[in-house]
Amino acid sequence: METERAAGIVLRCQPVTESSLLVTWLTREFGKLKTLAKGARRPKSPMRGRMDLFYQDEIVFLRSRRSDLHLLHDCFLEEPHRALRENLPALAAASYVCELVDAVMPVEDPSPVIYDLLAGMLALLERRVAVAPVIWFELQVWNAAGWRPAFETVTGTGKLLRALTTAQAAGAERVRLTAAQGAAALATVARFRDEQLGRGLRSQKILWQQLSR
Questions:
Q1: Can you tell me whether residue 63 is helix, strand or coil?
Q2: Is the separation of the CB atoms in 68 and 107 below 8 Å?
Q3: What is the mean pLDDT of each run of 10 residues along the chain (213 residues)?
Q4: Could you identify which of 47, 67, 155, 177 might form a hypothetical disulfide with 182, taking C-beta atoms 3.0 to 4.6 angstroms apart as the criterion?
Q5: Can you list the positions of beta strands (E) in the chain?
Q6: CA dihedral angle for residue 21, residue 116, residue 201, residue 18, rounded to 10 degrees
C-alpha cells in the first residue's frame, strides 16, 4: 500500500486506547483528515511528542479503502507553536480558531486558502492576541467556505464587520476595539455561525472571557 504525504495542522488529538491517538488534521493537500496514530502514546514511540493541538507537521499516512479514518505512518514536527500555551488568552484564541475550522470544514475537501489562513493566524496569535484579528479570521474562513455573511451597515457593529471582511491580515491586526465593540462584534458573528452550524462552539465562552479582560 502506497503512502501519501501532506502538510498538516493538528485540530484535535484524542486518546482512543492506552497506546493510540485519533488525530484530526487540517492539511493543505487533502483538507480535513482523520488519522489513527497507533502506538503514539507509548514512551518509546518515534511519534511521541510530535503531535499535539496546534502543531504543524509533515505527515505520512496510509489511506483506508473502507472509511475516512486513515493510518498515520509517520510525522515530522515543523512548528509546535509553544508560545500559544504560555498564556490563557493565546490558548483560548488558538483553541477557538481550530475548533471553528474543524466545525466548518468537511472531511477531505481541500482548501489551501483556509489552511494558509489558519497557519497565519496561529503565527499571529503567538505575537499578539486581540479581538479584531480573531473576528477577521472567522469572517475570512466563512468567505473561503462559500458562506459569505451579509451584515447590516446601519450600525457601528455592521460597518466594522463589513470593513473587516474586506481587510487584509495586517490591517485587521492594527484595529483596536473597546471591550464593548469587541463583545458586540463577536456576538453578531456568533449568531451567524450558530445558524449555519446549528450549534455553538465549546471554546467560545472561554474566548470571550479572556479577550474581554
A1: coil
A2: yes
A3: 91 94 97 96 89 96 94 96 94 97 96 98 95 96 89 78 91 91 91 91 90 75
A4: 177
A5: 3-15, 21-27, 31-37, 56-62, 69-79
A6: 10
**Cβ proximity of 24 and 31 under 8 Å:** no
Cell 474543524 belongs to: 102
Q: Give CA–CA dist 123/79, Å, rounded.
A: 10
Question: Which of 42, 36, 92 is closest to 59 using CA atoms?
Answer: 36
pLDDT value for 151? 78
38: its cell numbers:
497507533
Polymer length in residues for the chain: 213
Domains of the chain: 3-79 (2.40.50.140), 83-211 (1.20.1440)
Going by the DSSP 8-state scheme, the letter that residue 14 receives in this structure is E
* The three three-digit cell numbers of residue 114, written as one number: 483556509
Helices and strands, counts by H and E, the chain: 7, 5
